[in-house]
Amino acid sequence: MKVPAPPSGPVPWDKPLALSLLSDMLRIRRMEERAAELYGQQKIRGFLHLYIGEEAVAAGALRALSADDNVVATYREHGHALLHGLKMDAIMAEMFGRRDGSSRGRGGSMHLFDRARHFFGGQAIVGGGLPLATGLALADKLLKRQALTACFFGEGAVAEGSFHEAMNLAALWRLPVLFCCENNLYAMGTALARSESQTDLCLKAASYGVEVMTVDGMDVVAVHQAVRFAAQKVRDTSAPMFVELRTYRFRAHSMFDPDLYRTKQEIEAWKTRGPIHTFTARLKLQGILSEDEFLALDASAQAEVEAAVAFAEASNWEPVEDLLRDVHTPAGAA
């Protein structure tokens, strides 16, 4: 596999926006690295899927959306949740399984959720978020609510029936859904060419009459510009759009994955395209960022992470008497 050249070229933003995007990626990276350490200490249990390497997708895309837009994500959703308004404290406490987590500790890493912030998961089933996103967009259209629904999913979901059903209905009913396919080349441990006879994902989406585009998902500039354009197109037309974001995860699929389906040489080659260090280099070359400013942003991200860990460790477990809470609707409730 030939790895493309690293992202390069001028950054077309003023300093505040450029540093905000860099900060977003650093916050995700430091949170994920700390989560891996905590998993090794058995403070985070169950499944844990890290976003390390893919930060440019969430950072570039979420900055192009509004706080009122719905976001539906996969089980690799910590970064999306953080950048769509969930506090890192609540995310970390949820991964710890504590009462102050975003789902009161009941969902864990794969089920972050915050209705008030229009963040609707955290879907553990491959392709499970696609029908949900279509339904949210339909509800908004019927209620004449001016918002779009951004649905993030991996390329493995494109082989699922839910992808085709969702694309078909979104196109047929002209629903404001922005389908964001995070193509990291490996659905769990299976390369795209081994699981799908047609590897042109945009061709599949276009077959439903949906406008499509492909973007370098390792370049936060390209991602932000593309998603901002696509989001505006969805708002203007109230019709769906499909964006393929070509990215790469540096860590294994999950903490249980031995990562035997690709070579270390391949991973190291892709690391030369790492979204944080390539973007940092571009900013320094333009004189937008100094080394001291980078270190300050990184220190701020690490301090936020440590504060979130302390918050999670101080949070209590949900009391035993609340274990059946929300399992059944109380008798007589409307």
Based on Cα principal axes, name the global outline: globular
The tally of strands reads 8
Q: Give the H and E element order.
A: HHEHHEHEHEEEHHEHEHHH
Cα(first) to Cα(last) distance is: 58 Å
Instruction: Tell me the radius of gyration.
Output: 20 Å
Supply the helix-strand structural class.
alpha/beta
Question: What is the count of helical runs?
Answer: 12
Estimate the strand proportion: 5-15%
Strand order of the largest sheet: 2-1-3-4-8-7
The major pleated sheet works out as: 6 strands, parallel
Low-confidence sequence ranges: none
- The level of helicity is 40-55%
The overall average pLDDT, rounded, is 96
Q: Tell me which oligomeric state these chains represent.
A: single chain
Task: Explain what you see.
With 334 residues, the protein is an alpha/beta fold. Helix content is 44%, strand content 12%. It has helices spanning 15-40, 55-62, 78-83, 88-96, 129-142, 161-172, 192-195, 201-206, 220-237, 264-271, 275-285, 291-314; strands at 70-74, 119-123, 149-154, 177-183, 186-187, 190-191, 211-216, 241-246. Strands 2-1-3-4-8-7 form a 6-stranded parallel beta sheet, with helices on both faces. Strands 5-6 form a two-stranded antiparallel sheet. β3 (149-154), α6 (161-172) and β4 (177-183) form a beta-alpha-beta unit. It is globular. The termini are far apart.
